Amino acid sequence: MRAVISVSDYLNLANHALRTIPTENMVIEGEVADYKVSQGKWVNFDLKDENAEAKISCFMTTFALTVPVANGMRVQITGYSKVFERFGKFTFNVSEVALVGEGALQKAYLLLKEKLKLEGLFDIERKRSIPQFPNRIGLITSSEAAAYGDFLRILNNRWRGVTVLHVPVYVQGQYAVGEILAAFAQLNALSGADRPDVIVLTRGGGSLEDLHAFNSEEVARAVFQSEIPVVVGVGHERDESLCDFVADVRASTPSNAAERVVPDARSIMSEISMDVDRVGDQLQFILDRCAHSVDRSVNILDRSIARVTESIASVTQRFGYAFERFRLSLVATIDHVDRRTQTFNGAVARIIEASQRSIGELERVLKSVDPKEVLRRGYALVRSGKRIVRHSGDVAAGERLAIQLADGSISAIVEGNARQESLL
Amino acid sequence: MVKKQTFAEAFAELEAITEWFETQNVDLDEGVKKFERGLELAKMLKEKLADVENTVVTLKKKFAVIDGQSGDSEI
Question: CB-based contact (8 Å) between A263 and chain B?
Answer without folding.
Answer: no
